[in-house]
Amino acid sequence: MNSIWYNKIQLQVEEKIENLHKKDFKFYRVDYFLLLAEKVDKLSSNCMDCKMLKKKIEDTANELDTLLSGSISLRKEYELKLDEIEKHIRKIHKIYPKQYFLYLYTFLGILGGISLGVLAAVIVNIDYKTALIFGFTAGLLIGRIWGKYKENGSETI
User: N or C, which terminus of the chain has less Cβ within 10 Å?
Assistant: First the structure.
């Protein structure tokens, strides 16, 4: 059950984005803003930083229509506020966005696989193209499996 504060924020956001196109709603991650607000609300009972973030969320909700329909610098300001909230939740509370580890470990797996493929091509003296393809594929698979495993063991937003 959501708190009165969160319900107030949700109503403000719904009022402010009435004229926003559905694609813009998704593009500007307004739904993610609401998820972050809900998470901050739940965490604020034990965290002073989250209590301070609630004020930023209120300010952002109040001026959401201006931030999203204004200039590029205003939209950038909105993105920076989202990033600040997300960074706090990720670093302090160890709660990550969905598929965070999947993407991270897939990238690292591909990078590692290509590196090992190049190294194998130099040491074993095999074709670079074959080594790169094999390294990329192996790294992709290992990274995806490792990321999925890590994803299942973590709390997500």
Answer: N
